[in-house]
């Protein structure tokens, strides 16, 4: 799957992943109204609104981007109907030939990690049959439990040719409380980056490993160091746009050929119609506003990478 992601980035010239994090406050009133008329103000109604919102975003951006990243918490909060909308979104994205990165941040040990891996990127046996329950192409994983927590995911990646993005240096303000702590004279995130490179060495695609890393756009200098530590790991970069990251901040996350990283924007794209720059589209045309935001992001990142050559 890493090879497909690389190929789609090369085809679209857009190292961009759209974060499908559909908070109800982002969903236009007319979408909510219709869903509630059909299902009532229920969990099912909320899930239907989420699904219709996602579909519109996907339809207006799928030809511009290589990948999407649904954040499972935004669906889980609506219980079983929300998870059904999560799965429906994944399946629809696959119909559009998009790579799906499930932002699930799982991490445990032994049989628990194996179950998480089977449910999200692998297969689960039911009698004589096997099923791929959620069937994302990549998932995000928390490495805090060490190799015991990561190896079951890596094993499934090898079997299924799918991938991981392991949290190394996250974009949130308090990430440094643990991630920046010095261990043997070096920040903890550097040690985690070395482990990511080690875990990924045994499951290579073409130019890159199935095992990638999450490194926030809000820490570009740290990204420069981690790019050297993990030369064969694709880097998923959150924090663009709404969290302050810009194209000029991102060049260190990429290799010299302009590959090696994919940048996430969530509310900056899916709620673009709420921003002054795209307000003229109005909420009735939120999908078109999202498309315009993707085009602007692609131009911003592309210009920055070109200037860095």
List the helices and strands and how they pair.
Layout: H1 2-12, E1 16-20, H2 29-39, H3 43-61, E2 67-70, H4 73-76, H5 79-95, E3 99-106, H6 110-120, E4 124-126, E5 129-131, E6 138-141, H7 147-160, E7 163-169, H8 176-179, E8 182-183, E9 186-187, H9 188-201, E10 211-215, H10 220-229, E11 235-237, E12 261-265, H11 267-270, H12 286-307
Parallel strand pairs: 1-2, 1-12, 2-3, 3-6, 6-7, 7-10, 10-11, 11-12
Antiparallel strand pairs: 4-5, 8-9
What report would you give on this structure?
With 309 residues, the protein is an alpha/beta fold. The chain has twelve helices and twelve strands. The protein has one domain (2-307): Aldolase class I (TIM Barrel, Alpha-Beta Barrel). A hairpin with a 2-residue loop joins strand 4 (124-126) and strand 5. It starts with a helix and ends with a helix. The mean pLDDT is 94.
Write out key terms for the chains shown.
alpha/beta, TIM Barrel, 12 helices, 8-stranded parallel barrel
Secondary structure category: alpha/beta
Output mean pLDDT. 94
Helix content range of the residues, please? 40-55%
Please state how the strands of the largest beta sheet are arranged side by side: 1-2-3-6-7-10-11-12
Low-confidence stretches: none
How many beta-strand segments? Answer: 12
Q: How many H/I helices?
A: 12
Output the CATH homologous superfamily.
Aldolase class I
Major sheet summary line: 8 strands, parallel, barrel
CATH class (first level) name: Alpha Beta
CATH topology: TIM Barrel
- Principal-axes geometry comes out as globular
Give the amount of beta strand, in percent.
15-25%
* Rg: 19 Å
Q: Provide the domain count.
A: 1
Distance between the termini: 28 Å
